[in-house]
Amino acid sequence: MEVGGLAAANPVWVGSSELTMTLDGLIACIDAGAGAVVAKSVNESAAARRQLDIADYAFVSPDGDVRAGPPERRDGLLNRSGLAQVELAGWLETLAAAVAHGAPRGCPVLGSITLGDPAEAARIGRAMTAAVPAVELNIGAPHGREARAVRQLTDVESVRDAVRTVRAAVGVPLFVKLPGQASDVVALARAARSSGADAVGLVGRYPGFLPAADGGPALGSWGAWGSPGCLPMSLYWVSKAYQALAAPLIGTNGARTAADVLRFLASGAQAVEVVTALWIGGPAVLRELVAGVGEGLAGKDFGEFVGSAVAGAREYADLVPPPSPAWLPYTARWRSSGR
């Protein structure tokens, strides 16, 4: 398969995270069958690297409680993180080694930059092109609302300017990852695409805050939130971008199972980045996901399956009312309860 000019082994990709921060982690994901692997993000800021020193992670059960024991696959994750604590020259060597390991397996390794200063991102991107076949520019980092060393762009002009600057310096496919919390993510996707993005990633995790029942906040601060409950929200923006743009899309935030990956594909994504499921179950989870997606696509044309759910979606104004109003059972239940 191909996404935005990048050949990949399959549509189950590993997103940038602490799991892809070392050569051992990158190799483990490649060997487990990932279609592509996005290395941990870097940028020019020493402050962004120091942010990793105060990283913390809270797995939250479907009931809303922070787990004291091992996390489960359907848990949400509230976390505080930072960027890879490496100098660029050494990181490029790590990336090159990972690329060499992945190439014979058909698994490309992408470099990743979380935006700080656009000119510096361009400089880093130019250097990365000597080591990797594609670069992901993350302009949707949720920590950008809390950490001064990274930025989250939510307006069209800022997205356009940043992508143009990096695009001019990067001679390999450039993928741009967008935030989920913006007034019009499709407009951001259109700006990224028109400014040179070869593919668009939708969407980054959401800012989050979770007090315990006694009032104390999990992590002792705000953080970034991702969970299976985010899936419909992520699919909303993927499907809307698919409907509005002729652009390759990469889905992220909410996929924990093969069925979730298939939902992303049916909503218009050509590939799906997975992170939290691997934190919980390890890279071996990739074998399960790749096999499950393969079974789900068996006998189907991949190109026709991508976006297939969007074709069946109707605007509210085009919907035909059902014979009996759908809300009647709910009002009847409320009346029978005596309230």
Describe the protein's architecture and organization.
By secondary structure, the chain is α/β, with parallel strands linked by helices. The protein has 13 helices and 14 strands. The strands form 3 sheets. It has an 8-stranded parallel beta barrel with strand order 3-4-7-8-9-10-13-14, surrounded by 8 helices. Strands 5-6-12-11 form a 4-stranded antiparallel beta sheet, with no helix packed on it. Strand 7, helix 4 (118-128) and strand 8 form a beta-alpha-beta unit. The protein is globular. The mean pLDDT is 93.
How does the SSE layout of this entry go?
Blueprint: E1 2-3, E2 6-7, E3 12-14, H1 23-31, E4 36-38, H2 46-50, E5 56-60, E6 76-80, H3 88-102, E7 109-114, H4 118-128, E8 135-138, H5 156-167, E9 174-177, H6 185-194, E10 199-202, E11 206-208, E12 223-226, H7 231-244, E13 249-252, H8 258-266, E14 271-274, H9 276-281, H10 285-297, H11 302-305, H12 308-311, H13 328-336
Helix pairs in contact: 1-3, 4-5, 5-6, 6-7, 8-10
